[in-house]
Design goal:
Helix content: 25-40%
Largest sheet: 8 strands, mixed
Strand order of the largest sheet: 3-2-1-4-5-6-7-11
Structural class: alpha/beta
Shape: globular
Number of strands: 11
Low-confidence stretches: none
Bound molecules: 5-O-phosphono-beta-D-ribofuranosylamine
Oligomer: single chain
Mean pLDDT: 96
Length: 224
Amino acid sequence: MADAANPRLPVVVLISGRGSNLQAIMDAADRGDLPVEIRAVISNRPDAGGLRRAALSGIRALVIDHACYGSREAFDHALMTTIDTFDPSLVILAGFMRILTPGFVRHYHGRLLNIHPSLLPDFPGLNTHARALEAGRDQHGASVHFVTEETDGGPVVAQVCVPVLENDDAATLAGRVLAAEHRLYPLVIGWFAEGRVSMQNDRLLFDGSPLQSPQRFTPEDLTA
Ligand code: GRF
Protein backbone atom coordinates (compact mmCIF):
# COMPACT_ATOMS: atom_id res chain seq x y z
CA MET A 1 0.00 0.00 0.00
CA ALA A 2 1.11 3.58 -0.57
CA ASP A 3 1.88 5.31 2.74
CA ALA A 4 3.20 8.58 4.16
CA ALA A 5 6.82 7.64 3.49
CA ASN A 6 6.02 6.64 -0.09
CA PRO A 7 2.70 8.20 -1.08
CA ARG A 8 2.79 6.71 -4.56
CA LEU A 9 2.63 2.95 -5.03
CA PRO A 10 5.46 1.63 -7.22
CA VAL A 11 4.04 -0.29 -10.18
CA VAL A 12 5.23 -1.96 -13.38
CA VAL A 13 2.87 -2.18 -16.38
CA LEU A 14 3.04 -5.03 -18.89
CA ILE A 15 1.70 -4.49 -22.41
CA SER A 16 1.66 -6.14 -25.83
CA GLY A 17 -0.04 -3.58 -28.05
CA ARG A 18 -1.45 -0.10 -28.49
CA GLY A 19 -1.45 0.74 -24.78
CA SER A 20 -4.63 2.77 -24.48
CA ASN A 21 -5.23 1.42 -20.96
CA LEU A 22 -1.63 2.28 -20.12
CA GLN A 23 -2.35 5.80 -21.37
CA ALA A 24 -5.41 6.06 -19.13
CA ILE A 25 -3.32 4.96 -16.14
CA MET A 26 -0.51 7.42 -16.96
CA ASP A 27 -3.03 10.24 -17.47
CA ALA A 28 -4.77 9.52 -14.16
CA ALA A 29 -1.40 9.47 -12.37
CA ASP A 30 -0.35 12.74 -14.07
CA ARG A 31 -3.61 14.41 -13.04
CA GLY A 32 -2.96 13.39 -9.43
CA ASP A 33 -6.02 11.11 -9.43
CA LEU A 34 -4.05 7.88 -9.04
CA PRO A 35 -1.28 7.55 -6.43
CA VAL A 36 1.09 5.33 -8.41
CA GLU A 37 4.64 5.70 -9.63
CA ILE A 38 5.03 3.80 -12.91
CA ARG A 39 8.59 2.57 -12.65
CA ALA A 40 8.62 0.75 -15.98
CA VAL A 41 6.53 -0.39 -18.92
CA ILE A 42 7.55 -3.73 -20.39
CA SER A 43 6.31 -5.16 -23.68
CA ASN A 44 6.76 -8.67 -25.03
CA ARG A 45 6.45 -7.23 -28.54
CA PRO A 46 8.96 -4.75 -29.98
CA ASP A 47 6.27 -3.08 -32.13
CA ALA A 48 3.82 -2.33 -29.30
CA GLY A 49 2.44 1.20 -29.68
CA GLY A 50 2.33 1.57 -25.91
CA LEU A 51 6.15 1.69 -25.78
CA ARG A 52 6.09 5.06 -27.50
CA ARG A 53 3.36 6.33 -25.21
CA ALA A 54 5.51 5.40 -22.19
CA ALA A 55 8.64 6.98 -23.66
CA LEU A 56 6.72 10.19 -24.45
CA SER A 57 5.73 10.35 -20.80
CA GLY A 58 9.33 9.87 -19.69
CA ILE A 59 8.72 6.36 -18.35
CA ARG A 60 11.25 3.55 -18.79
CA ALA A 61 10.02 1.43 -21.71
CA LEU A 62 11.58 -2.00 -22.20
CA VAL A 63 11.11 -4.91 -24.58
CA ILE A 64 11.49 -8.52 -23.58
CA ASP A 65 10.64 -10.24 -26.84
CA HIS A 66 9.03 -13.62 -26.19
CA ALA A 67 10.18 -14.77 -29.64
CA CYS A 68 13.77 -14.74 -28.35
CA TYR A 69 13.08 -17.40 -25.71
CA GLY A 70 12.91 -21.14 -26.21
CA SER A 71 10.14 -21.81 -23.72
CA ARG A 72 7.34 -20.08 -21.85
CA GLU A 73 9.23 -20.74 -18.60
CA ALA A 74 12.43 -19.11 -19.92
CA PHE A 75 10.51 -16.04 -21.08
CA ASP A 76 8.60 -15.70 -17.83
CA HIS A 77 11.80 -16.07 -15.84
CA ALA A 78 13.44 -13.25 -17.79
CA LEU A 79 10.32 -11.12 -17.41
CA MET A 80 10.13 -11.75 -13.67
CA THR A 81 13.81 -10.99 -13.15
CA THR A 82 13.46 -7.69 -15.00
CA ILE A 83 10.23 -6.70 -13.25
CA ASP A 84 11.81 -7.36 -9.86
CA THR A 85 14.68 -4.95 -10.51
CA PHE A 86 12.01 -2.23 -10.26
CA ASP A 87 10.69 -3.59 -6.94
CA PRO A 88 7.00 -2.98 -7.71
CA SER A 89 4.22 -3.43 -5.17
CA LEU A 90 1.79 -4.09 -8.03
CA VAL A 91 2.20 -5.50 -11.54
CA ILE A 92 -0.50 -4.31 -13.95
CA LEU A 93 -1.40 -6.29 -17.05
CA ALA A 94 -2.74 -3.81 -19.59
CA GLY A 95 -3.38 -5.70 -22.82
CA PHE A 96 -0.57 -8.15 -22.13
CA MET A 97 -1.39 -10.98 -24.52
CA ARG A 98 0.62 -13.87 -23.10
CA ILE A 99 -0.51 -16.72 -20.91
CA LEU A 100 1.66 -16.60 -17.79
CA THR A 101 3.17 -19.68 -16.16
CA PRO A 102 1.97 -20.82 -12.71
CA GLY A 103 5.38 -19.95 -11.26
CA PHE A 104 5.11 -16.36 -12.49
CA VAL A 105 1.55 -15.99 -11.21
CA ARG A 106 2.46 -17.43 -7.79
CA HIS A 107 5.44 -15.08 -7.51
CA TYR A 108 3.12 -12.05 -7.83
CA HIS A 109 0.22 -13.55 -5.89
CA GLY A 110 -2.05 -10.77 -4.64
CA ARG A 111 -0.20 -8.06 -6.56
CA LEU A 112 -1.04 -8.88 -10.18
CA LEU A 113 -4.09 -7.25 -11.79
CA ASN A 114 -5.59 -7.71 -15.25
CA ILE A 115 -8.37 -6.09 -17.24
CA HIS A 116 -10.45 -8.33 -19.48
CA PRO A 117 -13.02 -7.12 -22.03
CA SER A 118 -16.04 -9.13 -20.89
CA LEU A 119 -18.27 -9.58 -17.88
CA LEU A 120 -16.34 -12.51 -16.41
CA PRO A 121 -16.95 -15.38 -15.95
CA ASP A 122 -18.55 -14.94 -19.38
CA PHE A 123 -16.23 -15.06 -22.35
CA PRO A 124 -12.74 -15.67 -21.02
CA GLY A 125 -10.11 -15.71 -23.78
CA LEU A 126 -10.12 -13.89 -27.11
CA ASN A 127 -12.70 -12.26 -29.44
CA THR A 128 -14.98 -11.42 -26.56
CA HIS A 129 -17.00 -8.72 -28.35
CA ALA A 130 -17.90 -10.92 -31.33
CA ARG A 131 -18.77 -13.77 -28.98
CA ALA A 132 -21.05 -11.56 -26.87
CA LEU A 133 -22.87 -10.45 -30.04
CA GLU A 134 -23.15 -14.01 -31.34
CA ALA A 135 -24.59 -15.10 -28.01
CA GLY A 136 -27.25 -12.39 -28.32
CA ARG A 137 -26.28 -10.66 -25.07
CA ASP A 138 -27.86 -7.32 -24.29
CA GLN A 139 -25.14 -6.49 -21.75
CA HIS A 140 -21.39 -6.74 -22.22
CA GLY A 141 -18.50 -4.97 -20.54
CA ALA A 142 -15.14 -5.35 -18.84
CA SER A 143 -13.76 -6.83 -15.63
CA VAL A 144 -10.73 -6.07 -13.47
CA HIS A 145 -9.50 -9.11 -11.60
CA PHE A 146 -6.58 -10.44 -9.64
CA VAL A 147 -4.62 -12.95 -11.67
CA THR A 148 -4.53 -16.55 -10.51
CA GLU A 149 -3.35 -19.68 -12.27
CA GLU A 150 -6.65 -20.03 -14.12
CA THR A 151 -6.57 -17.79 -17.21
CA ASP A 152 -9.09 -14.95 -16.81
CA GLY A 153 -10.39 -16.85 -13.78
CA GLY A 154 -9.12 -14.90 -10.75
CA PRO A 155 -11.45 -13.06 -8.38
CA VAL A 156 -13.14 -10.08 -10.01
CA VAL A 157 -12.93 -6.78 -8.15
CA ALA A 158 -15.11 -4.62 -10.39
CA GLN A 159 -16.99 -4.62 -13.66
CA VAL A 160 -18.46 -2.04 -15.97
CA CYS A 161 -21.62 -3.11 -17.81
CA VAL A 162 -22.05 -1.71 -21.30
CA PRO A 163 -25.39 -2.12 -23.09
CA VAL A 164 -25.27 -3.85 -26.47
CA LEU A 165 -27.04 -1.67 -29.04
CA GLU A 166 -29.17 -2.97 -31.87
CA ASN A 167 -26.77 -2.01 -34.64
CA ASP A 168 -23.56 -2.90 -32.83
CA ASP A 169 -20.85 -4.85 -34.57
CA ALA A 170 -17.75 -6.12 -32.80
CA ALA A 171 -15.85 -2.89 -33.54
CA THR A 172 -18.50 -0.45 -32.25
CA LEU A 173 -19.08 -2.55 -29.15
CA ALA A 174 -15.33 -2.87 -28.54
CA GLY A 175 -14.96 0.91 -28.79
CA ARG A 176 -17.59 1.58 -26.12
CA VAL A 177 -16.21 -1.12 -23.84
CA LEU A 178 -12.68 0.24 -24.24
CA ALA A 179 -13.76 3.77 -23.30
CA ALA A 180 -15.29 2.31 -20.13
CA GLU A 181 -12.14 0.26 -19.42
CA HIS A 182 -10.16 3.51 -19.37
CA ARG A 183 -12.27 4.66 -16.41
CA LEU A 184 -12.57 1.35 -14.59
CA TYR A 185 -8.92 0.30 -14.49
CA PRO A 186 -7.49 3.46 -12.85
CA LEU A 187 -10.32 3.34 -10.30
CA VAL A 188 -9.50 -0.22 -9.22
CA ILE A 189 -5.74 0.39 -9.26
CA GLY A 190 -6.42 3.38 -7.01
CA TRP A 191 -8.33 1.16 -4.58
CA PHE A 192 -5.36 -1.21 -4.48
CA ALA A 193 -2.91 1.65 -3.96
CA GLU A 194 -4.99 2.98 -1.07
CA GLY A 195 -5.15 -0.49 0.53
CA ARG A 196 -8.93 -0.71 0.04
CA VAL A 197 -8.86 -3.93 -1.95
CA SER A 198 -6.69 -7.00 -1.52
CA MET A 199 -6.70 -10.72 -2.21
CA GLN A 200 -6.12 -13.07 0.71
CA ASN A 201 -6.15 -16.83 0.01
CA ASP A 202 -7.81 -16.20 -3.37
CA ARG A 203 -10.67 -14.27 -1.66
CA LEU A 204 -11.22 -10.54 -1.99
CA LEU A 205 -11.34 -8.07 0.86
CA PHE A 206 -12.83 -4.64 0.24
CA ASP A 207 -12.57 -2.03 2.99
CA GLY A 208 -11.80 -4.88 5.41
CA SER A 209 -14.83 -7.03 4.56
CA PRO A 210 -15.16 -9.99 2.17
CA LEU A 211 -16.29 -8.87 -1.28
CA GLN A 212 -18.92 -11.44 -2.27
CA SER A 213 -19.54 -10.19 -5.79
CA PRO A 214 -17.80 -7.68 -8.05
CA GLN A 215 -18.49 -3.97 -7.67
CA ARG A 216 -20.64 -3.16 -10.71
CA PHE A 217 -20.76 0.14 -12.56
CA THR A 218 -22.40 1.64 -15.60
CA PRO A 219 -20.25 3.80 -17.89
CA GLU A 220 -22.19 6.83 -16.58
CA ASP A 221 -21.25 5.97 -12.96
CA LEU A 222 -17.61 6.15 -13.98
CA THR A 223 -17.84 9.48 -15.74
CA ALA A 224 -19.71 11.18 -12.88
C1 GRF B 1 -8.16 -4.20 -23.79
O1 GRF B 1 -9.40 -4.43 -24.38
C2 GRF B 1 -8.00 -5.05 -22.56
O2 GRF B 1 -9.20 -5.29 -21.88
C3 GRF B 1 -7.50 -6.36 -23.12
O3 GRF B 1 -6.63 -5.98 -24.16
C4 GRF B 1 -7.02 -4.71 -24.66
C5 GRF B 1 -5.81 -3.84 -24.57
O4 GRF B 1 -5.99 -2.60 -25.20
N1 GRF B 1 -6.86 -7.15 -22.10
P1 GRF B 1 -4.89 -1.46 -25.00
O5 GRF B 1 -3.56 -2.04 -25.45
O6 GRF B 1 -4.87 -1.09 -23.56
O7 GRF B 1 -5.34 -0.34 -25.89
